[in-house]
């Protein structure tokens, strides 16, 4: 399929919507409950403005940087997503696109492709794990990723199994066997290009999790793995320190939005954190990650690499996050839409859109280097930021706290 260039991520999303069966598109959109956090992640970026110069920009600008011990062509990384059935080449296509554009890759443990294939396609692959199964199982999964050449581990611990969305959750079959294809044929027939792409490979979409397979065993199905995860007691900070030690290399804790948690993560020995709310898919009501970034970056940014993910759709969003203290951002839906719209070239297209937008922001701000971005380059409206978990700082305005206490007292 020849790729047709798209000029923004919004256009890629529109194409993905037209191309994918509605259940697969809905699975990418995700979000949880009312979608407050999901919406705030992008709305908050739009609230931020720029303070541009009009004369004196340099003819060329440097976008390259490094984070988590890796060089990168720009401060962007692929965030791990456990979404399957978007495209037959799946995470391998994403890894190739990221490698072609000099960007590190994050691979979800719920991904459809094995770490060996993905790490071979991108020499800067980070393997992502949840806290699930026994320590022995986790140690085996880490050893396999290390052997495959993963350069870092991402631990995601912010999942709280919130369920339900006001706009409904898609029904996702475990595998597309003949019976499922027949019962779901109206969806497939409405999206023939997507269906044909899988048909050509001779392998219908399967929801397997090859990176969670036990030695000598077949890959567990998505729902089987999800059940194992649900049964695992949540980790303690000692567990995180153990995980980092067991991995023995670069370690990113993803999902931190409070300052006190960021400080505990430093104590646990992590090399970096991503200020994140899981793209709004988790605890609805968590503020946009860009609102939480400045306080976290102020507190620990000189000790570890502070990254951000959630709501990044434009190169200017990357500039805003870096100006407010992020070493880099991770992107989720942006590349998933690119993948759905055009496979590997579609993901490359998304990365080019971000690159062009970041370069344009640097030019407008009169910066020769992405590392020169500062908070003063961004207009931050009053009341924008949220300093979560700052000792001694009230999270609610005092009058609201008083009102709540009065109500509780009245209610006995
Ligand atoms: C469909 C979907 C699946 C995801 N699966 C995972 C996952 O398996 N592991 C993980 O750490 N994060 C997962 N995430 C969260 C992303 O890594 C990232 O935090 C989020 O997408 C960032 O927000 P954005 O989509 O607005 O860029 C998922 C996100 C989406 C949208």
Automatic annotation (TrEMBL):
PROSITE patterns: FMN_HYDROXY_ACID_DH_2 (PS51349). Residues 1-383 form the FMN hydroxy acid dehydrogenase domain. Its cofactor is FMN. Coiled coil: none annotated. Keywords: Flavoprotein, FMN, Oxidoreductase. Its EC number is 1.4.3.26. One of its GO terms (molecular function) is oxidoreductase activity. This is Pre-mycofactocin synthase MftD. It comes from Branchiibius cervicis. Gene3D superfamilies: Aldolase class I. Belongs to the FMN-dependent alpha-hydroxy acid dehydrogenase family. InterPro entries: Aldolase_TIM, Alpha-hydoxy_acid_DH_FMN, FMN-dep_DH, FMN_HAD, MftD.
